[in-house]
């Protein structure tokens, strides 16, 4: 290749974006000295919103960096470092729009109920940005997430605190036994290069095309399922009554961000059942102010100002009666009275269930105390795995991070596999009838009887994605000499199709001497837990949703946080997508940062991703210097862990910025110590010296700023100059880095 090798580093949101203000200058200075360009692409929620309105913004228009990266991901040249970004719920989207408008961008309001073509167009643009709109575009490969040995050893040496489990804990998972996606799932393997249409044939004789054209390839698995609204409502009522009877908190765990169409509807049904009395007594008022239960009870609070004084007091009195009569809700923030049902994006199942399991099975109640909780996870497809963990903790006590084994994951997600790509094929059914999936020859492939209010969902899983996933699993099992379990349930229609493919593709590989099994998720969880208790590792090979769930669950149990995970997506076209950690954008870290100039974000995920990205660059471009940089960074990461330089949890210790200093210093020292590249050695020797000699001054400059309010000029679109200044307060460190570029 003639171009300068390039790594594209993503600018995202919240805590990872703040961390980038401090870390990226280090990366650019180091990589620059080795002739590697590190460029940025802005895929923050704010940038993605602005990119939707080029014609309105004129000279303020913003390039669609996400679209560009999405195209790049399908080429062998891709080398992208991807930090976590906000997958926006509707309330978050509206807040971001309001902030951008205040900053002078003349974008329209979010039209909740569009009436004109212009409004419908604006809503369609905003809906493209909503939910998990980034990851499915960039993830043109399957995922390989694991704790590198150095990280696992670090966790064993410095075990994090795990809450004790009591055998008498009343915490449990509740799921539906009928009427859920699991019950109704149908699945087929398509046979030609063609397309299907999804239509609703009404019992009233009507025929509504829900989606006219969906391209399908031969060998592709299609499935569809229905969540029955009446059954869900009845189930929620029973769980509210049961939580009250048992004296547990009521909590709801969904993925309203990633599953942006189906899960907000399920969230909304739960809100309507929990706050049923509000509807009974004030239905007309709620309709008048346009309360949207799918956006949470927070939407009602936001709109209370539109009511008269008397109306507001009546509504507030009813809410108080509801809280008195119903079981307590799990709290997101007890001090501020923010509950699990406030906003659909506050409690996200992948992170919320592990947090509950780490905290002795409890969630926070209104008094700010941990209390046993009923975890409502309506659909049975995946809910059962968490009950297995809870049962295990009740029987055997909490897991011990000092001795437990590891469960890495190989996850199917390429080409929008499974539920991941279902959003444009998920519908709230407007009236009773039959949904039919028909191909271009008129053949009916699947049918579902539906009633008004039900959620219909169709998913696609490409054959090539499954083949690549099986290959990745076999390679991982071989490389790490570890048993691998495919978590697939022969009782599920979709999984039965996938099992056939797995069995078929396994035959393409040499699996001699490997322990590869196919177990249902519940059995696979039991098997893996029994092994980790003995200190043994087991690779989980899962579909997309379990990939998401398990890559927070096991890291949070094993390492205290998924931030310490290596998370690689070998792109099917040959490029590399290097994700940082497996967790989210930690909004509460930003709140702490602006309140007290202290950022708890742990960038280890970024360090690991950068090392893997440099190594990939060296391998694909033959750039020797990138290889030297990668090896030195590996040494630096090892020292960083050995010396435990992650952010401390308390003000006065090093935070994210301090941890970046240590990483930069160890990296520079390793480059100064190596002998394979004399020029790099010469360039880094004085820098390493400046960083070592300057240690006391640098730490003083970094720690000295803590403890006061910081202004970064925006939440969704912080002011770059202000954020740079806030995140780079050490003149001594900045000068050492500048000397590299000089
Ligand atoms: N890859 C992506 O782009 C992802 C994006 N998201 C998005 O992130 C947002 C928040 O989601 P949520 O599910 O609450 O997940 P988060 O991972 O942000 O929050 C859960 C908790 O994880 C811990 N945590 C995660 N990363 C770090 C880190 N690097 N350093 C220290 N602690 C960390 C913190 O817990 P504690 O205090 O217990 O240590 C944090 O409060 C949402 O907008 C969501 O859509 C979520 C997942 C992945
Ligand atoms: O895309 C998202 O919304 C979240 C992704 C996520 O949680 C994950 O990949 O682990
Ligand atoms: Mg996740």
Automatic annotation (TrEMBL):
InterPro entries: Isocitrate_DH_NADP_mono
Family classification: Belongs to the monomeric-type IDH family.
Source organism per UniProt: Solilutibacter tolerans
Record site feature (Critical for catalysis), residues: 255, 420
EC number(s) reported in the record: 1.1.1.42
Protein name: Isocitrate dehydrogenase [NADP]
Residues passing through the membrane, by range: none
Positions bound to substrate: 132-139
Positions of NADP(+) binding: 82-87, 135, 584-585, 589, 600-602, 649
């Amino acid at each position: 290749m003639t171009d300068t090798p390039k790594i594209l580093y993503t600018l995202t949101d919240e805590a990872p974006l703040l961390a980038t203000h401090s870390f990226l200058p280090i990366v650019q200075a180091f990589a620059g000295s080795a002739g590697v360009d590190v460029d940025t692409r802005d895929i923050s929620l704010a940038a993605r919103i602005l990119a939707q309105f080029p014609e309105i913004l004129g000279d303020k228009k913003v390039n669609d960096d996400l679209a560009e990266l999405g195209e790049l991901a399908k080429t062998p040249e891709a080398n992208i470092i991807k930090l976590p970004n906000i997958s926006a719920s509707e309330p978050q989207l509206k807040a971001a729009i309001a902030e951008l408008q205040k900053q002078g961008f003349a974008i329209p309001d979010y039209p909740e109920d569009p009436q004109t073509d212009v409004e419908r167009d604006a809503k369609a643009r905003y809906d493209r940005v909503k939910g998990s709109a980034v990851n499915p575009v960039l993830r043109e490969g399957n995922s390989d997430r694991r704790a590198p040995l150095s990280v696992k050893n670090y966790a064993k040496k410095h075990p994090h605190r795990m809450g004790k489990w009591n055998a008498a804990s009343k915490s449990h998972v509740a799921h539906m036994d009928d009427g859920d996606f699991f019950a109704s799932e149908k699945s087929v393997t398509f046979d030609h290069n063609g397309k299907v249409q999804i239509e609703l044939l009404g019992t009233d004789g009507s025929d509504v095309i829900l989606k006219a054209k969906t391209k399908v390839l031969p060998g592709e698995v299609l499935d569809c399922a229905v969540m029955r609204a009446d059954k869900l409502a009845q189930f929620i009522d029973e769980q509210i009554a049961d939580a009250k009877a048992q004296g547990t908190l009521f909590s709801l765990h969904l993925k309203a961000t990633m599953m942006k169409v189906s899960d907000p509807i399920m969230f909304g049904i739960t809100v309507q059942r929990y706050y049923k009395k509000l509807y009974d007594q004030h239905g007309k008022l709620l309709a008048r102010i346009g309360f949207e239960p799918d956006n949470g009870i927070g939407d009602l609070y936001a709109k209370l100002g539109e009511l008269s004084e008397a109306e507001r007091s009546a509504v507030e009195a009813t809410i108080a009666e509801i809280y008195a009569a119903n079981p307590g809700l799990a709290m997101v923030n007890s001090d501020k009275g923010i509950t699990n049902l406030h906003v659909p994006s506050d409690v996200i199942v992948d992170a919320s269930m592990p947090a509950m399991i780490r905290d002795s099975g409890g969630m926070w109640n209104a008094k700010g105390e941990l209390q046993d909780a009923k975890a409502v996870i309506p659909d049975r497809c995946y809910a059962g795995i968490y009950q297995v963990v809870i049962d295990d903790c009740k029987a055997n006590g909490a897991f011990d991070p000092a001795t437990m084994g590891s469960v890495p994951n190989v996850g199917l997600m390429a080409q929008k596999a499974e539920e991941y790509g279902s959003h444009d094929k998920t519908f709230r059914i407007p009236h009773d009838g039959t949904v039919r999936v028909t191909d271009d020859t008129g053949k009916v492939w699947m049918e579902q009887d539906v009633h008004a209010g039900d959620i219909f969902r169709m998913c696609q899983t490409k054959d090539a994605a499954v083949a690549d996933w099986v290959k990745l699993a076999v390679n991982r099992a071989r490389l790490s000499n570890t048993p691998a379990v495919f978590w697939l349930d022969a009782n599920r229609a979709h999984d039965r199709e996938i099992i056939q493919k797995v069995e078929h593709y396994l035959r393409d590989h040499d699996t001699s001497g490997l322990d590869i099994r196919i177990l249902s998720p519940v059995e696979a969880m039991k098997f893996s837990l029994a092994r980790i208790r003995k200190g043994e590792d087991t690779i989980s090979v899962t579909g997309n949703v379990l990939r998401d769930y398990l890559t927070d669950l096991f890291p949070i149990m094993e390492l205290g946080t998924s931030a310490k995970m290596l998370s690689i997506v070998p792109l099917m076209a040959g490029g590399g997508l290097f994700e940082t950690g497996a967790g989210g954008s930690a909004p509460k870290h930003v709140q702490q940062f602006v309140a007290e100039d202290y950022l708890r974000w742990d960038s280890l995920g970024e360090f690991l991703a950068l090392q893997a990205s440099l190594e990939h660059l060296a391998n694909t471009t033959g750039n020797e210097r990138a290889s030297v940089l990668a090896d030195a960074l590996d040494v630096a990461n090892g020292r960083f862990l050995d010396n435990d330089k992650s952010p401390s949890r308390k003000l006065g210790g090093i935070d994210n910025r301090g941890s970046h200093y240590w990483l930069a210093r160890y990296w520079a020292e390793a480059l100064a110590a190596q002998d394979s590249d004399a020029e790099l050695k010469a360039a880094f020797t004085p820098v390493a010296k400046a960083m070592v000699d300057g240690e006391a001054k640098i730490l003083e400059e970094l720690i000295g700023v803590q403890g006061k309010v910081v202004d970064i000029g925006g939440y969704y679109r912080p002011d770059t100059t202000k954020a740079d200044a806030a995140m780079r307060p050490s003149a001594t460190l900045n000068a050492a880095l500048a000397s590299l570029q000089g």
